[in-house]
Amino acid sequence: MPHLKEITPFYETGPKRSIEINHSLKITRMNEGMPILTPKKDSSWESKVVLNPAAVLIEDLEKLGPLMVTWGLNSSQKKMLLDSGGAVVMLYRAQGEVDPDKRLAPSSAGLAVFTPTLDFVWRKETPAIAPDEAYHNLGVEDGRCTFINGIYYFFYTGYYYDKTEDRNKVHICLASTNDFIKWELNGPISGNLNVVDNKNAVLLPNKVHGKWVLLHRPMQGEFPKAIHWATSESINGPWISEGMVMGSYQFKGFSESWIGAGGPPVYIGENQFLTIYHQGHYLPDRKREYDLAATILDFSQETKCIAKKRIEPLMRPTGSEEQKGDESLGVDNVLFICANYIWKDDLILPYAGADSRIFGAKINFDSLVNELGYK
Question: Which domain holds residue 71?
Fold first, then answer.
């Protein structure tokens, strides 16, 4: 099967920049820098890698009670969550062995539960969403989850084989749930976002100027491999693209760079949202590096989304656990994020390292927002 088309990214103007970290923010890698979730070698669907988790914080203990029953947690697991003050529900991407018919390892969405400080509590033995629909028959990938009015909306990348074009493609899909066990699969979203390969879709937590907003990243067309935004009257669509928000800068030492949205942006007031995103880079030898970055998106003007000061990079891969991935897949030196949430004074960042295992980090929320110039 032919793979996705390679497209040159759009770049912002200006001289090439340094990739060196130049901020003074304190970022703490949690669990002493070790993974909080690793593959299960005895599992057919998650034996190779676990990566790119969506995560939702549930602090309402009355709502959490019935969910713990639905998940089948035992008394000690329930106590662990209640004593900690809530739960973090994680929907992560997982891959097992290569399927010889598909010539790749299809991705499923796994389900795990942690405390708000990312202590492991429970993991579902079977996929939350398996790659068994035509629109995601090669993978349920890189989802982001936003809670709106009692429903958890999971926008994800559906990876599939298109017989008409004889190639693998990606498009934005939507699923929803109120308990993470029973799912409504909506399939590819309606509107004009999926007319090209598209991914990295994330729903903002509240309306802007009376409409829902979705960040996304087209892989082709005008301004490719940059962060775009779309609006809709309904979360279920149709979604209409409003254009590009920002593209990547060019960086010294890399032959190519691009960006894509991370977890659900955090509302900070005045139609502005703190946004964590990823930066991808290719070295001249086609080895890669993925870093995490941060900005504030300003929707004060109804027809524009403006990215303010950008911290690039916020984090880079360090140590063997983040820099060396599964040998058979060969994806090294990567940090990738699909989730963030506020716990007490910190912004918690669940992220993947080297496309192989899941980690957590934290940063003081106010310090980050102040560093980005929000007053």
Answer: 40-371
